[in-house]
Amino acid sequence: MLYIAARDHVFAVNLTTAGDDFVPQLKLTWRSKDVAKCTVRGRNSDECYNYVKVLVPRNDETLFACGTNAFNPTCRNYKMTTLEQVGEEVVGQARCPFESGQSNLGLFAGGDFYSATMTDFLASDAVIYRSLGDDSPVLRTVKYDSKWLREPHFHHAIEYGNYVYFFLSEIAVEYTTLGKVVFSRVARVCKNDNGGSPRVLERYWTSFLKARLNCSVPGDSFFYFDVLQSLTNVLQINQRPAVVGVFTTQANSIPGSAVCAFYMDDIEKAFNGKFKEQKTSDSAWTPVPEEQVPKPRPGSCAGDGLASAYKSSTTFPDDTLTFIKSYPLMDEAVPSVNDRPCFTRTTSRYCRLTQIAVDTSAGPSKDRTVVFLGSEDGRVLKVLSSTHPNASFGSQLLEDIDVYNPSMCNIQGQEDRRILGMELDKDHHALFVAFTSCVIRVPLSRCTEHGALISVSTNIYISSSHLSDN
């Protein structure tokens, strides 16, 4: 089943029966009762709706949904099979943004809900937050501390091992002399974090660390794609767990996009490396000398590894807690696979790429990696990716498809061609592409449009038997 979050509605689509013109099997209507209050406060009428910004599985039977609710964020539980409400509403603050345009993340891990969003309608307090757990305390990032978060844009969150990872872009604190420069980061917290002592970091994360993601073209002068746009869940690249993301250049730079992959063990290595510090407001950022790092190592999970002697983070020494409060940034960036992007697009006539979906088991032998990239102008690029260091060929652009359908997607004659999301349905051989006002189903193999001359090398999803039939 595919669940689609929308304004005032949630739709459920049966993927088994969905065709090109698919019809939702279930439809939930959830309108705000606070529209009058919203308009009285002087808010734009377009924002005085209930934009469903969180829609995640709570367990095998329940969906957890949160909406902006006309600037009064609210959350509910629904049965997956019927979309009937279960239980009472809960407050959505710190779990859901106030505005539809604000970025946010949400996922359940170990029975706890992890969210990343803005906690106030002025969008001044960004937070990574944990709540709704039966046995875990509510925790958050330190409030109004730019060393922890500085004007972040949240992109993706995953549970992996003992941690929950958050992928985001933010204003780089280490480059303030150059103006507002955006860097992409990966941050992590321990799932068993219970906060600090009553003296330091009580009700705050004790394990929060973050590191830069380096997506760049090497050379005498590196060319950086600093702004993360979209990221996958953990998948296998060269038989190693990895994530793959699409990055762009700075907003005021030459337009360009790149796809970079990152091994999870390289991310772990960065978090086990040196910390970064700025001794005075005028000095450069430098690594913290190892002899100045307290024990147990800041950012460790209680009861594990270097902190195995501590049953709970609440018993960590004040030195460890004070250090992590002041130095959450790692010195070394996470390198990309092969230290370079696996695909780039930098000419000015192309729009930026903003969404990604990856199939690592494509082709007749299920051993090819195909990357689908969504753009700002409603196009999907299908790329045969090469990530092996000894590969004899680079990544190849297989198709460039205009998937935007004006007859379905235009609202009052206006076009909004920016792709907002993509979901790969390998079982039914389709890619679902979300726009502001519609969702388009794109077959992975478009044999009927290309005819019998298609080869397996140019359309990885068409088997040799299928070609001979055509």
TrEMBL record:
<dbReference type="InterPro" id="IPR001627">
    <property type="entry name" value="Semap_dom"/>
</dbReference>
<dbReference type="GO" id="GO:0030215">
    <property type="term" value="F:semaphorin receptor binding"/>
</dbReference>
<dbReference type="GO" id="GO:0005886">
    <property type="term" value="C:plasma membrane"/>
</dbReference>
<dbReference type="GO" id="GO:0001755">
    <property type="term" value="P:neural crest cell migration"/>
</dbReference>
<dbReference type="GO" id="GO:0071526">
    <property type="term" value="P:semaphorin-plexin signaling pathway"/>
</dbReference>
<dbReference type="InterPro" id="IPR015943">
    <property type="entry name" value="WD40/YVTN_repeat-like_dom_sf"/>
</dbReference>
<feature type="domain" description="Sema">
    <location>
        <begin position="1"/>
        <end position="444"/>
    </location>
</feature>
<keyword id="KW-0325">Glycoprotein</keyword>
<feature type="region of interest" description="Disordered">
    <location>
        <begin position="281"/>
        <end position="300"/>
    </location>
</feature>
<dbReference type="InterPro" id="IPR027231">
    <property type="entry name" value="Semaphorin"/>
</dbReference>
<dbReference type="Pfam" id="PF01403">
    <property type="entry name" value="Sema"/>
</dbReference>
<dbReference type="GO" id="GO:0007411">
    <property type="term" value="P:axon guidance"/>
</dbReference>
<protein>
    <recommendedName>
        <fullName>Sema domain-containing protein</fullName>
    </recommendedName>
</protein>
<dbReference type="GO" id="GO:0045499">
    <property type="term" value="F:chemorepellent activity"/>
</dbReference>
<dbReference type="InterPro" id="IPR036352">
    <property type="entry name" value="Semap_dom_sf"/>
</dbReference>
<dbReference type="GO" id="GO:0030335">
    <property type="term" value="P:positive regulation of cell migration"/>
</dbReference>
